[in-house]
Write a structure and sequence with these properties.
The structure holds 2 protein chains of 2 kinds. Chain A is an all-beta fold. Chain A has no helices and 11 strands. The chains are: A mainly beta, B mainly beta.
Chain lengths: ~110, ~110
């Protein structure tokens, strides 16, 4: 039973390019969460999605960042026109239900902006 | 006041010793609490949930004190492999799901 799968593991982009991070939740999980971990910082919530719906995006920067979780396929976190400050580890987690269920994390995608 | 606060450490502890650390949270309506373990540059992994009655899993014991709004983690007979960062995690309740709120973690180093 595969866990949460994220790819790529490492992503290098130049300033101004686009970054696409993918996350496939655990089998049977329909709730997906994205977190960002900046160097020397704790994990920060970005967005919570269910299939085809964004439930809570209160942690997403207002510009350049978007997320989707289509009916088919993985969840995608998209960062347009990346800047140096976007360099971080981006973790995806999934759960079966919304509350009182621990989230299972993927290995993360480490984004480096040159 | 930060939502979830932990002493960042590092805690340097000799192998075999007992170590404990706390985490305080500010949202009194929080309902779910967890301890996650994160190794260097790896993803967080669930260590244990924290129940109102407290719970124990082998050498690890977690406690919840709602009145004082803190949770604790006790590790007995510490092993070298326990060296990691321990993240205190609190889940918000009611109306919207903003996911989990993570503390910045307590760095534990077990020394031989």
């Amino acid at each position: 039973n595969a866990g949460v799968m994220q790819n790529p593991r490492h992503l290098v982009r130049r300033r101004g390019q686009e970054a696409r991070l993918r996350c496939s939740p655990m089998k049977g999980h329909s709730h997906v969460y994205w977190y960002r971990q900046l160097p020397e910082e704790g994990l920060k919530f970005m967005v919570y999605l269910q299939k085809e719906n964004i439930i809570d995006e209160s942690g997403m920067p207002k510009e350049r960042f978007s997320a989707e979780f289509p009916k088919e396929g993985p969840s995608i976190l998209r960062i347009q026109q990346v800047v140096r400050g976007d360099s971080a580890a981006y973790f995806c987690a999934s759960s079966q239900q919304e509350y009182n269920q621990p989230q299972h994390f993927g290995d993360g995608t480490r984004l480096s902006i040159l | 006041r930060k939502e979830v606060e932990q002493d960042p450490g590092p805690f340097n502890v000799p192998e075999g010793a007992t170590v404990a650390f706390n985490c305080t949270y500010s949202n009194s309506a929080s309902q779910s609490f967890f301890w996650y373990r994160q190794d260097c540059r790896k993803e967080p992994k669930l260590l244990m949930s924290v129940y109102s009655s407290g719970n124990e899993d082998g050498r690890f014991t977690a406690q919840l004190n709602r009145a004082s709004q803190y949770i604790s983690l006790l590790i007995r007979d510490s092993k070298l492999s326990d060296s990691a960062t321990y993240l205190c995690v609190v889940e918000a309740t009611g109306g919207g799901a903003d996911g989990l709120t993570f503390g910045k973690g307590t760095h534990l180093i077990i020394q031989p």
